[in-house]
Write a structure and sequence with these properties.
Layout lengths: L5 H18 L3 H11 L10 H21 L4 H4 L3 H13 L3 H14 L4 H13 L2 H10 L9 H12 L1 H9 L9 H24 L7 H30 L4 H12 L6 H9 L4 H6 L5 H15 L2 H6 L2 H17 L14 H4 L4 H18 L18 H10 L10 H20 L24 H10 L3 H17 L1 H17 L9 H15 L1 H12 L6 H18 L26 H14 L1 E2 L3 E2 L14 H5 L20 H17 L6 H14 L6 H17 L2 H8 L3 H14 L3 H23 L6
Antiparallel strand pairs: 1-2
Length: about 775
Amino acid sequence: MRSSSPEAEVRVAVGSCLRCVATSRRNEETDRALRALARYLEDGDASASRRAEFNRAQYTRVLQVLVRTLSSDWFHSLCAERRKELWDTFFLKGPPDQALMMLLDSVNSISSGLEQCVRVLENFLSSGRVRVLLWSKCEGGSEHTDSARLRETVLGRLAALPTLAANRLHTHTPVLFLPQQYYQQLACDILATLEKTCQTLRVGQDCSLGFVAQLLGKVCMQGHGGLVCGMLAPHLSSLTRSDVLWQRVSCKLLENVPERWVESVITALIHNLTVLGYLALEEGRRLLLRQVLQSVCEVWCNSSAVRHTPVEQQLYVSKALLLCVSLLNHTDIQELREGNATCRLDSNIECVRRIGMVVGECLSQKLDPPTSQLKFQVTFDLSVSNREFLIILCCNVSYSLPSFSTSFFFVFLHSSFCLSCLSFLSDDDLTPYDMSHDQVKQKVTSPHYIRDCLEALMSSNDPERLELSLQVAEELLRKNISATREVSVKFTKVLLHLEDRYNTTGFYKLRQNAMVALAVMHTQPVVEYLTTEFYSLNYSLRQRLDILEVLALSAQELSEPIPDKRTGPHSVTPATTLELCGEVEHWRQVVEKRIQSKTRRISKGVSQPPKATPNRYAPVAGYFFFPLLRNYDRQQVTFDLLGNDHLVLGRLMHTLGLLMHLAINAPVATQMGKALLDFVWAVRFHADQMVRRGVLFAVCAVFLSMPSENLLMEISDDLLENRAWLADIAENDPDADCRSLAMQSLVLLERNVKSHLKNPPLEA
């Protein structure tokens, strides 16, 4: 009797079953063939040698045939229980690496049966098959027969599974495939694999951590190290505290991470471990902690670091500084007295100033006696400033929060007690007076004429009269055009110099609205006065910023289309004040709208740019724009625009960019664009990030508003240099907003170049 090899037997048996599955029209025959194939799965009764041969040479072939049956009548006739037995089980009880690749390939390539593949892939993840896959790459030491190409493919699929799934499923992606859930579960699977590795080593068997280390490195390199190491770091820190074997396994794990990914792994681990606490545990290591404190303090007080590093990095350094202080005693931190927080308090970025104030207060409580401790007027928004509260928690220093917790609680108790007392004291027999028509009797009446309003603002020492005059000023100025023009410049001068002596409610908003009304109703003389006064002597920074805000808001209102008499009045969109809109967000919205109008979308066709319509701003745009460029480089005693007053320079850049943007389709737009490019080119490498944001916003505005042929003619000699500068900013600038604006500028520049090449100007 002739005997055949296990390889031949498995090949013949599997081939016969697969032919039956692929060609049979009888469901019973297909069921029997699949049950025969199931003998070779993990819990089947086939011998170990035949199961190994099936896994090596036949398993992927079986899965391919099963995927092709998704559109067959046999598959659609299966109930849920039989489908799980005859179809799902082949993906959940075979070699997990091959099953994972087949499922992901099917999800990305098929349409019929997609839901079934997604459901099985969910079961694959939730049933621990990834854990089985990782262990299959660890057991047996270095004795693995799979090819390097296969291992690299499996590695890539595991590391990028959420991205691969989302590219196909989009908004229908299951929760298990989302990065938050997937990478945390992957971290748990890595921990379980490491634990099984320790158990195997204890009984004298070899294991290899190469695949797990490569997976950890690849995941961290792709930016998911925070999720994975957030789970790994606390457990590894606890397990390695007293277990030598766990220490050895953890070291091997990090040693086997490929060199190109080591930095990503170490960075993610450090963010989730308290290395400083380790240095503070023993007296012999506390010297290192003091050296760390000195280095961190030098970085924190470095003005160059404040200007050129992202806010997130500065927050991290601040946390490290306060944590070092909390771990050292009073004598070890005396050298901090030599530090200087002025560079942070002088910053234009509110978050940086707030960090400086919080850290300064915390350090002062540690270093100074109670009578001389620093106290800033720091207010916290509990909804958006959670990161700053972490600094306080790191330092373990008591800090008085605004009236939110304790104060709010006592106010609530007090009001509840008062209401309960009133309910006992109420008397239904007493009829209350009807006071619904009562009016507050005012001693002073509101002015009804513009000159009376002006006189009240100039000479009144009565707070009530001043407030009433401010409240009606805008309405009076817009209602009486001829009277407004008679006193427009004088009225503007009074408002510009008016101070909030009586803490009037809404003072700055009311004053600003009145000045905008003056600029809109009598544009040329008022704007000429404001632009001249911007560079004049003896004005505060606040007044110069007020001038820029008024110019921007009045230009926005004037740029609204002139209403057509046939269609009725045009509703004017209320302008957002520059002070309230934040530093970049409002300007970015302006740019984004114009970018969208210039962007071609294949599904929607070519979007048309906004139609040119008459407005009141185009004829007077030059009065707003050019005087602001006149004396920017002239240093004065009270005003140095290119020196210390970079806050005003940054806001000036934003204002000029907005004025440029509003002048689109105006005849003067080309001249404005040329002048603005010359201005920003001189300060494009400014150290302050607010100024750089303004420069890039102005560049975006020029690229959006100037005709492409005029733009390219203006910058043709410096086109390559402009590209190189913008590319460098987009890649290397520490500020995220600068990088984003530079990228938008590059896109707009390339679009202008393509438009010019596609439609060259006609020669005379």
